[in-house]
């Protein structure tokens, strides 16, 4: 059965630093699709983040490249299997040089925390109680 994938393409200042940051979070780099200008970060079987140098990113768009430290370009949200896994991933991101955003949420059925990566891209990590999602 076909599984649709998502490839998130992000402009970064330093591809090598982005590779290091995301491997410190526990993700792998697919060398087949990585170069000096691009790091292919494998988040899951169906989610891949392409960390592109700004020069390489510009090859794919005629629009001005946003500065994610001053402009919100997107909110990237990843699910987690538990509250503890939310904390684990965000704590790893902060330890690897990410910045906490204060965008935390703690509801009975949902828990989430946020961080900005080295380039200012905003990432949310959220756990939702499966029972609340079903009904």
Walkthrough of the structure:
With 135 residues, the protein is of the alpha+beta class. It has helices at 15-24, 54-57, 83-95, 130-134; strands spanning 6-12, 28-29, 38-42, 47-53, 75-79, 99-100, 105-106, 110-116, 122-128. The strands form two sheets. Strands 5, 6, 7, 8 and 9 form a five-stranded mixed sheet that branches. A four-stranded mixed sheet has the order 1-4-3-2. It is globular and about 45 Å long.
Concise summary:
The protein has 135 residues and is an alpha+beta fold.
Considering the chains and any ligands shown, give keywords for the structure.
single chain, 4 helices, 4-stranded mixed beta sheet
What's the structural blueprint in terms of helices and strands?
Elements: E1 6-12, H1 15-24, E2 28-29, E3 38-42, E4 47-53, H2 54-57, E5 75-79, H3 83-95, E6 99-100, E7 105-106, E8 110-116, E9 122-128, H4 130-134
Parallel strand pairs: 1-4, 5-9
Antiparallel strand pairs: 2-3, 3-4, 6-8, 7-8, 8-9
- Overall geometry: globular
Q: Which runs of at least 5 residues are low in confidence (pLDDT < 50)?
A: none
- The oligomeric status of these chains comes to single chain
> What is the chain-wise order of helices and strands?
EHEEEHEHEEEEH
Number of strands: 9
C-alpha Rg (nearest Å): 15 Å
As a percent range, the share of strand residues is: 25-35%
The biggest sheet amounts to: 5 strands, mixed
Structural class: alpha+beta
Rounded mean pLDDT is 95
| Distance separating the two termini | 27 Å
Helical residues, percent? 10-25%
By DSSP (H or I, 4+ residues per run), the number of helices equals 4
């Amino acid at each position: 059965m076909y599984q649709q994938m998502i490839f998130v393409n992000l402009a970064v200042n330093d591809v090598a630093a982005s590779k290091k940051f995301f491997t410190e979070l526990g993700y792998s780099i697919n060398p087949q699709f990585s170069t000096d200008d691009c790091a292919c970060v494998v988040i899951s079987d169906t989610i891949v983040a392409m960390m592109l140098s700004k020069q390489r990113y510009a090859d794919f768009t005629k629009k001005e490249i946003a500065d994610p430290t001053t402009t919100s370009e997107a909110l990237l949200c990843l699910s987690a299997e538990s509250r503890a896994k939310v904390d684990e991933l965000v704590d790893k991101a902060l330890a690897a040089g990410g910045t906490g955003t204060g965008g935390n949420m703690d509801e009975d059925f949902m828990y989430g925390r946020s961080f900005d990566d080295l380039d200012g891209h905003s990432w949310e990590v959220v756990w939702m109680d499966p029972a609340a999602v079903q009904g």
